[in-house]
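Weekly puzzle thread! Below is a chain. First person to post its structure in token form gets bragging rights.
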Amino acid sequence: MKLDYKKTLKVGTAFAIIMVFWTSYDYVVPLLLENAFGLSNSMRGLIMGLDNLLSLFMLPLFGKLSDKLVSKYGKRTPFIVVGTVVTVLLMVFVPISATKQLDKAMELRGRITDTFAEQYSYTAGDGTHYDSAEAIYTMLYEKGADNSDFCDRDYLKANGRDSLGEYLEIALNGKTDDGFSDDYIRFVKTGITNYANGQVYENITKNNTATLVVYMIILFFVLVAMATFRSPAIALMPDVTPKPLRSQANAMITLMGGVGGAIAFIIYTVALTVNPTAYVLVFGLVAAAMALLLVAYLKLVKENKLAAECEELCEKYGIDNDDDDSAPVNAETDAAKTANGGKDSKTAGREGLKKAKMTSFLLILASIFMWFMGYNAVQSNLSIYLTKTLGLGAEMGGLVSGLSMGVSAIAFIPVGMLAVKIGRKKSIVIGFALAVVSFVMVFFFAAHAGGGVSVLFTVFYLLAGFGLIISNVNTFPMVVELSTKDKVGRYTGFYYTATMSAQAITPFIAGLVMDSTGGSKYLFLYSAACVVVAIVLMMFVRHGDGKPVPPKSKLEMIGGD
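Winning reply:
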């Protein structure tokens, strides 16, 4: 029995719709919040986590509702269609609602950065007047005593520049015929950017909170629309795939998600290259891409037909897709072997196995939760880290993200095969370990702007992306392995409850870490610690690995050893 790759890729079109939206959302919305509203790391993280908080109860709900739906279009397709259409109609209003605010903010930022760079006088929002470039840069350096994002003195000292005089020399001679000197970008530019950010918040956002409120209301309805069809779209794969093939099938589904992410990457990279604040254009093009993918899904996927084909295949090979008695990961559990309390050994064994499987199910969800706590903390702050900490333009940051997608896409098929060879649990632990190594390396070697640092960061981020692929391909199949066919949508909802709850809180916690430590590099230590906990939890899982792929027919099963 082999996976029908062509059919699975067609089914993955639904996931591509989802990933077009979320890839652009995760990259562009933090930039919009930063540039338009000047929010702090923690406030921005709080807003980026609200969509996941909303999903905590919506994803299980709509997963369960889709389990019960009976229609001529299938259980999942009606949710996919309605959710996509509503999202497409609403999403472009997210950046439109912040357009006037963005224009005001960018005008203020321009005045601040141009004034500093050209060495003119400047009057701050509190009325303090700085009548020389030296006074301006002295002010920035002094603020570095409380906030190292303005001026990381440890970094200065490590590079032989530990005095105010040396800092001022870099600052005052930063402007060159070709733009800015490397030292200016490394030691001064971030401080000016952060100061401008604070001025936008104090002088514009706080005086016009209604704009932020309107923005959040529109964003809320868009996120509700997206939440209505995420669980149904993901549950479609196990609906039409026999259990032994689900890791490989999930690899194909994730590959199609990568296609959606690549489409989003091309859209926001090209648009932000032409205009670094072209957020309306980005969202409009993403909406169009989602609509076209929906048309492709409706042309390619006939849900009821595919589900019937799956049932025929399972019957042919003697597979019970409704059997939740998945094989133990390591060995038969002690709980399944214990006796009884007055019950016969068969009944006691079933109850013991059921309890052991529930323990594994909860451990899997807890491990997934910690994994997403770690990885999403980086993902939700990636565009900010690339632009503020490494000093890259928004379009260059997009290239780093896109390169990660492209290289990781190559791994999807071999990763699915890896799970067949060594099991899902071992594959997941390997993926987690790669991410830990990557985050630690970023902390030590790619935490400041500079010539080769962006190259090092890209290499390390690719390593984490490869770990992401290995882990994500296998975690979802482990969850649905423990479900029955009439509960796939519900278990899909449980899976997303774990992922979304992590993503609801980790951007805020990560923001607090960055604000309190005064440096974005500590984000990666926080993320590494979360993933280490995920590894420990996964080591105790005993159920959820797939059963072996059966032979070609029932006759071979009878004649086998």
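Puzzle host: Confirmed. Bonus trivia for everyone else. Strands lie at 122-123, 129-130, 175-176, 179-180.
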